[in-house]
Amino acid sequence: MEEVYKPAANPQEVELFTNPTSSTICCAVAIERRTFSTQLATMLIISSFVGALLLASEALACAGHENYHAMGIKRQTAPVPPKPADWAYEASFNWGRINPNYSLCQTGTQQSPIALSFSHGLALSHVLKFNYPNKTAGNFYNWNYGPAFTVTHPEGVYTNNPSFTYDDMTLYLKGWHIHSPADHTVNGMRSKAELHLVHVDEEGHEKAVLAIRLDPGNANSTFFNQFPKMIGFNDVGMQQEIAINHMPALESVLLFNEFWTYQGSLTSPPCHEGIRWFVSRQVMFTGVEQMRDILGASTYSARAEQEVWQHRIND
């Protein structure tokens, strides 16, 4: 009798309508396997093609991705390390005890910030002379606690950055960040925020900070008008390349023509000392909505005031 072979409803099954020999079964199974393999390969090719089309359409439709490129925003690590897990500003009184590397926060003799007062008088020496260009390129981001900016420069080269000179010493702007509320009080009054312009020597060692207190006023700040939408404290992986003019900030406080100065420290662990602080007597005023934007992008970052010891205020 002639053998008749046909695939069953299930492609993996084979029906034989005869008394098949073993060789006949092997042949039928081999044919069926080749047929199934061909079908499977065809299905995989079609699936891959459809998947590629879907991915392409999703990329075109992704508004967030489009916006980052349109705004010049990059999703990458910001130029400062993430907030350490073992310290917080709310517990700054305890920094020197939680980590041996932070011992200076507890034992230092020139710790910052300190309470300032008109009873201290104002500085009569250490006059500042600025050499700031109209535009400075850099990265705008959030330093975990508020708005921040780092100047773009070749690796290890700071001497082309904006600078200021005092006592025949020239220091270079590394970047700035904002604390909220202000670190320093004046006559017991604390401003809503404080701008710190951090300056380094030729080798990149931090040597001085220019501090400008910020409060809301009746008109928008020309300095803050330059910035795009604030980057929030919960989006520290984002940064934006921009060029800004720092002179409006300095001019708002009359180029530091009146200030307090003292020998201090960094205001976060490890609290290194040897930092010359210049705190402007004048306040930079922002618009109400500008201040709300600053505060909305910030979290609490004011270290507890330190006792005045060997700070040599205005000396």
UniProtKB/TrEMBL annotation:
InterPro entries: Alpha_CA_prokaryot-like, CA_dom, CA_dom_sf, Carbonic_anhydrase_a-class. Residues 85-315 form the Alpha-carbonic anhydrase domain. SMART domains: Carb_anhydrase (SM01057). GO terms for molecular function: carbonate dehydratase activity; zinc ion binding. PROSITE patterns: ALPHA_CA_2. Pfam families: Carb_anhydrase (PF00194). This is Carbonic anhydrase.
